[in-house]
Amino acid sequence: MANKVFIATKTHPVLNSQLSSAGYICVSSNEASLLAIADELVGIITSNNLEITADLIDQLPQLQWVGRLGSGMEIIDVEYARAKGIACFSTPQGNANAVAEQALGMLLALNHNILKSHLEVKAGIWERERNRGIELEGKTAGIIGYGNNGMAFAEKLRCMGVSVLAYDKYKSGFDEPGIQSCQTIEPIWEQANILSFHVPLNAETYHYFNKSWLQKMQQPITLLNLSRGSVVETEVVLTGMLSGKIVGAALDVWEQEPLPMAPKEYKSTADALLKLPNFIGTPHIAGYTYEALYKMSYMLAEMILNGRG
Fold it and tell me: What are the pLDDT digits (tens) for 208-253?
């Protein structure tokens, strides 16, 4: 009977419970290989763990839908899937608050030297003057991409007294007090001293932040990337930090994930960044809170069972 769902990523039990109640048999990647149940498979739940390519789709004759836990559909050949009548679902709204909270936390940690001074205190160093902080209030932030994550972060910044300039190639007219919708990117190049990326990875956004972009920024900036690693060119981040054009940077996503951690291999641009006191790096955890996992799992099950994406 073709009613199996292959779950290739960690989910909250609420997803399995809802799908099972609807008659699906949920199979985890620990229990069976995907191709071993190819003729019985009607659905796949994935995140970053499994890429759904055209070749894979062609090997799954009963496949009806693919569910993406979180955002970023670049791991699914959506055009090919839909051409074959396969529905594609995602839940970018499920982890938007989690990503926004981490972005704000990273920004505050950089501006107030929280991590740097903590490590110094642990090492027996008591230094106040060199760790004098900079307040967010009164600053101008450029938000690139005004989807679920960008919007959630903009709202938190506005509450902190930050003026937000938001640019989205595919949206306009979303002005509200404290948040200005920019028709072009030039106002951000001219005014922003905080720059945060919230865009999907595609041909247009690969190395979106590059040498040319850095040169056009007229203010020293604090740079955040919690979208996809290759949206920001890592070498340019390092160059900007060493030149002082970037006064602080935080990356939750990387061009290579996971980073090579073995000492003999670990001689990369990422390694150089991690040695800088005004840099914070985390292992792609921003949208991975306990609450986000529940919200994404619940929302995805609802979308699948209601047939709406």
Answer: 999 999 999 999 999 999 999 999 999 999 999 999 999 999 999 9
With vertex at residue 5, the alpha carbon angle to CA 200 and CA 82, rounded to the nearest 5 degrees, is 45
| Active-site entry in 79, 135, 186, 257 | 257
As a whole number of angstroms, the distance between CA 39 and CA 258 comes to: 33
Between CA 69 and CA 301 the distance in angstroms is 10
The neighbour count for residue 4, using CB atoms within 10 Å, is 19
Distances (CA, A) of 212 to 51, 166, 190: 32, 20, 14
pTM value is 0.92
Q: Which of 155, 207, 284, 302 is catalytic?
A: 284
* Distance between CA atoms of residues 244 and 246, nearest Å: 5
228 given a catalytic annotation: yes
Please provide the average confidence, as pLDDT, over all residues in the chain. 94
